[in-house]
Please model this.
Amino acid sequence: MIGKDTALAASYLQQGKLVAIPTETVYGLAARIDLDEAVLSIFTAKNRPSFDPLIVHIADPSWLGALVLDIPEPAKKLMAQAWPGPVTLLFKKSELVSDLVTSGNDTVAIRMPNHPLTLETLRLLGSPVAAPSANPFGYVSPTQAAHVEKQLGEKVAYILDGGESGIGLESTIVSFIDAKPCVLRLGGMSLEELEDLLGEAPAVNISTHSNPKAPGQLDTHYATGIPLLQTRSIRAAAEEFKGKNLALLSFSESYSDLPWVGSEVLSREGDMKEAAQALFAAMRRLDEGNADFILAEFFPEIGLGRAINDRLQRASHRK
Ligand code: TXA
Ligand code: MG
Model:
């Protein structure tokens, strides 16, 4: 069922059921963190490996104290300016947070999402929820209620429809476990903005191995069913794959002289935020077409362009 009824969403969560929630980054698949069965059902619904920990979502910074052992000063400073917003902070967890949520880690990732319907639902519920992106494990994250309905509709009690996600990329994850803040996942808050809010450049440790600190960073992730290839030259790649049905995923150029069977230009104006917002829905549309390959451009490595490249790289077909 899809709707905008926050009281209904809260009551399903209260009963331990799964509810898809809108956020400014992507839609989440939410369950109460204090019911083991509810948390386990998230992993089952997504077909997600149990070693991949969940992000806890709160409605107010005052909820944080009970969930963590200590809140370092730089984290306080960031939260005060960035929440609600597209940044997740990693802390040492308190006993209140179950090992199921953190996959046995002694740390917990927490964020306050910026969406009025979800904040209202959490306030009505009165307790935090765990929520990964509401897609089957390994697929592109959802930025619309219809995306969730299509893939997980039968597995959730309710989809709270909050319209299109305004940012369109998952949150940036910043660890405050060590003295220096460290980015573990690029996302909806750019490194430039983060540096500005922290007052110092964070360390960046984006893992690409099979046993990473942030397992969302597994090699194959965010992938379309049709193989996607990220390339520095669309023209050279189109030439190389001549004779195949090709679809285009580009920043601002349309390459309209080439024979595309599908084409998504994310921002004709070359606006990186607009491109990020449009990215995942465009990947899904291309995946519904009949191309043999999707050719995706490299984006300029500035602002959200870095996170877009990260997602396209992980979505890229491995030969
Ligand atoms: O924007 C977002 O963050 C969205 C919305 C729904 O809030 N959520 C999201 O969740 O992207 P998910 O499950 O797709 O990605 C969460 C990632 C995990 O894969 C892992 O990399 C990292 O967060 N994570 C969570 N808890 C962690 C922990 N204790 N230590 C290290 N990484 C953690
Ligand atoms: Mg995800």
About this structure: The two ends are 40 Å apart (CA to CA). The CA atoms of residues 16 and 35 lie 7 Å apart. Residues 23, 25-26, 28, 52-55, 88, 90, 102, 105, 107-109, 113, 131-133, 170-171, 173, 184-185, 213-217 surround threonylcarbamoyladenylate (ligand 1) (CB under 6 Å). The longest strand covers residues 87-92.
